């Protein structure tokens, strides 16, 4: 799928300032040697650490009540059971280990909701690296538990105050740091975004999800799924869940984006009340890659929105944009309310509290199960513990159906 120039059809590439090229070239070389060619047994060590430290393989579980509700077989790939509570560790561990093989001494990362920063901080503690995480000031205030987790694992958290103080600015700051400290520093990017080789490399680290799931479906269901559903922010759990099924013609792939509060945009204010870049975005360059993104007529990146901060990003991985153009993957979206309803439904019906990001995939299943075939696989990208406060707040505010009564906390949980 990936070619050596890092292009996926029209998308991808290396749109970076000159100062970053040495770092990119060094990383490209390391990616080819250690990841693609397993030099020095890199991939073997990666797999073993994923097992011993990460807890892989994660189960593929038959969802009994959902299967009954939708009158078809529903399976859940339980990435919420990976160490750290989300798929993020697959990539963070892979990249920090790669940095070790490259002889780097310092790790930097960006984080939005704090999930990737947390996974990176854990991987750095595990492999004995110094770790600095750039995080928008606004996100620091919204995601305090993850800030605590990073600090407790020994990472430094650098507040980013420019712009809106969110993920987009944090990525730009981290790239700046990388350009000035190329010699001893590796930048662990958090999704299948950024300049080549990041999109291909992050996909390779995450594809353990579909490698396992494909085998588990064969064994447990005796068949491959008719459709695979995964939520898409930057697209790393999506690409991880899709990768090994891409060549299976009978398996339909659905990337479920955040429809936010509306699919329409306010061009004048530069605001999109959604994060549906695959469904509604145009072509442009963001963070080193050509891809689909939310932009205004002047090419300025718009503010995005989602009730789930992990999906709140104006771009998407170039390979996913390519799979959509090739009609191999279908972009769909659900709105904030549907995601909140699905969050409560899955928690009550299956005893699995999903991340709000993940809940988007289950919301799509709820509304479209009749079109998804006899056997459906949903990637549970993460667990929802991190979201409890905001879910309770949002649920009350919006009067979400079927939500538990939380009035005993009225006046707020804080
Ligand atoms: C970060 C995150 C996402 C979104 O990121 P992708 O790169 O699109 O996978 C989805 N689910 C969870 C649980 C996350 O932490």
From TrEMBL:
The keyword Lyase applies. CDD domains: Trp-synth_B. Gene3D superfamilies: 3.40.50.1100. InterPro entries: Trp_synth_b_CS, Trp_synth_beta, Trp_synth_beta/beta-like, TrpB-like_PALP, TrpB-like_PALP_sf. The modification N6-(pyridoxal phosphate)lysine is found at residue 88. GO terms for cellular component: cytoplasm. It catalyses: (1S,2R)-1-C-(indol-3-yl)glycerol 3-phosphate + L-serine = D-glyceraldehyde 3-phosphate + L-tryptophan + H2O. Its cofactor is pyridoxal 5'-phosphate. One of its GO terms (molecular function) is tryptophan synthase activity. It holds the Pfam family PALP. PROSITE patterns: TRP_SYNTHASE_BETA. Tetramer of two alpha and two beta chains. HAMAP family: Trp_synth_beta. The beta subunit is responsible for the synthesis of L-tryptophan from indole and L-serine. This is Tryptophan synthase beta chain. The gene is trpB.
């Amino acid at each position: 799928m990936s070619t050596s120039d890092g292009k996926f059809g029209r998308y991808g590439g290396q749109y970076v300032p000159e100062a970053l090229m040495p770092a990119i070239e060094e990383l490209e070389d390391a990616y080819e040697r250690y990841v693609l060619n397993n030099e020095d047994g890199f991939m073997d060590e990666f797999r073993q650490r994923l097992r011993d430290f990460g807890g892989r393989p994660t189960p593929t579980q038959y969802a009994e009540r959902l299967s009954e509700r939708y009158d078809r077989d529903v399976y859940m790939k339980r990435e919420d059971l990976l160490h750290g509570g989300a798929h993020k560790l697959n990539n963070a561990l892979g990249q920090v280990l790669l940095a070790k093989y490259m002889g780097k001494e310092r790790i930097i990362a960006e984080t939005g909701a704090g999930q990737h920063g947390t996974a990176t901080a854990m991987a750095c503690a595990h492999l004995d690296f110094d770790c600095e995480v750039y995080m928008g000031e606004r996100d620091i205030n919204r995601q305090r538990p993850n800030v605590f987790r990073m600090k407790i694992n020994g990472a430094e958290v650098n507040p980013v105050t420019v712009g809106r103080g969110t993920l987009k600015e944090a990525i730009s700051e981290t790239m700046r740091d990388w350009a000035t400290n190329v010699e001893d520093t590796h930048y662990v990017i958090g999704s299948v975004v950024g300049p080549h080789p990041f999109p291909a490399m992050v996909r390779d680290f995450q594809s353990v999800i579909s490698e396992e799931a494909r085998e588990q479906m064969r064994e447990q269901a005796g068949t491959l799924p008719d459709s695979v559903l995964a939520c898409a922010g930057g697209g790393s759990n999506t690409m991880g869940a899709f990768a090994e099924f891409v060549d299976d013609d009978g398996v339909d792939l659905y990337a479920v984006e955040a429809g936010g509060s509306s699919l329409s945009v306010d061009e004048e204010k530069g605001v999109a009340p959604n994060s549906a870049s695959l469904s509604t975005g145009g072509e442009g360059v963001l963070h080193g890659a050509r891809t689909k993104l939310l932009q205004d007529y002047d090419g300025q990146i718009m503010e995005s929105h989602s009730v789930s901060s992990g999906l709140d990003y104006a771009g998407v991985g170039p390979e996913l944009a390519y799979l959509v153009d090739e009609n191999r993957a279908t972009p769909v979206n659900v709105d904030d309310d549907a995601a909140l309803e699905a969050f409560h439904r899955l928690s009550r019906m299956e005893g699995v509290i999903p991340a709000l990001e993940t809940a988007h995939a289950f919301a799509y299943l709820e509304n479209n199960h009749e079109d998804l075939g006899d056997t459906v696989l949903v990637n549970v990208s993460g667990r929802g513990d991190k979201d409890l406060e905001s879910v309770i707040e949002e649920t009350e505010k919006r009067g979400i159906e079927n939500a538990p009564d939380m009035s005993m906390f009225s006046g707020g949980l804080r």
